[in-house]
Amino acid sequence: MLVTVANHRPFNMIQNIFKIRQPIPFSRKYIASAGAAVSSNSISIEKNGSKFTWNDVFQISSNNSSSSGDLTGFFQKIDSCNRGSERRSDFLPFVVEDQIVGYVHNGFLDQLNKFKEVFTYIKDDKYGSQFGHVTLHSALKTPESRTEALGDVVQYLGEEVIPGIRNELYPVTSSYGGQVYFSLERAAAPYFGIKAYGIHMSGYVERDGEKYLWIGKRSETKPTYPGMLDHLVAGGLPHGMACAENVVKECEEEAGIPRSISSRAIPVGAVSYMDIEGYRFKRDVLFCYDLKLPDSFIPENQDGEVGSFKLLPVTLVAEVIRNTQFFKANCNLVIIDFLFRHGYIKPEDDGYLKLLQSLRSGDCS
């Protein structure tokens, strides 16, 4: 059965020169050494616009014969989240307090070299790169001063260099739960190779021995991946928020799930990937949650980011992943993990262990 639901000082000169679309006042002191204009030769975020409808999704089960046991389509989806490994040597370690917290493309380093009071380039091989490493200026000794300085740099570079700025800070650490060296704008994380963490929750229903997944279709006005299929609930992990609390927050905002229900979500592990595209090096770890929902529950989006929801048989969702590009890329990994845990992918399937291992192709730490 298918169910439908549907305070810094202003710096106007830089705002005018670089045409920041939604300028935010910021401090003058860390950008004084920037000098020349920012190059427009930037790498934009992939925006996978999609024109498919729910009817196209429903056709998958009839247009594609059952390929249970063939894991090829799943491997392809995992590969699409782990591109560019051959270009890893183009990135220099980003080091803070003798810890590698990220990686910076040698081309993007040309941008950072304009900020002499923020970044320092050291040519050595101490951290495994023959081309040296990038660190922060020695005057930036506290997380607060680093956060302010990097924030000023991101706002100075603006949308033309770092698209999708949303004024949401991510903690910068060398590993999950470790020391937070500073916080960084979410959109900038891939440009500094910062490890980012998020939560993805699979909301499912059981009917007559069959499992169904609630799937969202992203709003067509979303700046990234508009109109693509997504989890019932997902979101980045902001600074200072525990995973469980973030699940509760995102459940309310994205699907109208009250705390009385969302607090029952079960942590079931994590998936990871490393994806290189242009100057961007995504090192993401996604904490996975399962939530068995009441049969009568119907999600209602609260923040305008989801266009509609459908309740789909897990077997259909598996075929959609296997045979289409309809899902936002990293959602594929989480759902494939769900298929393992709920017995839809079996040890008898050729490539079982290799596929299982590939769900954690990134640095899962």
List the SSEs and their pairings.
Elements: E1 3-5, H1 12-18, H2 54-63, H3 72-79, E2 91-96, E3 99-105, H4 109-112, E4 119-122, E5 133-136, H5 143-157, E6 169-172, E7 182-185, E8 195-207, E9 210-218, E10 229-230, E11 233-236, H6 243-255, H7 259-262, E12 266-277, E13 280-292, E14 306-313, H8 314-323, H9 329-341, H10 352-358
Parallel strand pairs: 2-5, 8-13
Antiparallel strand pairs: 1-14, 2-3, 4-5, 6-7, 8-9, 8-11, 9-10, 9-14, 12-13
Helix pairs in contact: 2-8, 8-9
Description of the molecule:
With 365 residues, the chain is of the alpha+beta class. 25% of the residues lie in helices and 25% in strands. It is built from 10 helices and 14 strands. It has helices at residues 12-18, 54-63, 72-79, 109-112, 143-157, 243-255, 259-262, 314-323, 329-341, 352-358, and strands at 3-5, 91-96, 99-105, 119-122, 133-136, 169-172, 182-185, 195-207, 210-218, 229-230, 233-236, 266-277, 280-292, 306-313. Strands 1, 8, 9, 10, 11, 12, 13 and 14 form an 8-stranded mixed β-sheet that branches. Strands 3-2-5-4 form a 4-stranded mixed β-sheet, with no helix packed on it. A two-stranded antiparallel ribbon has the order 6-7.
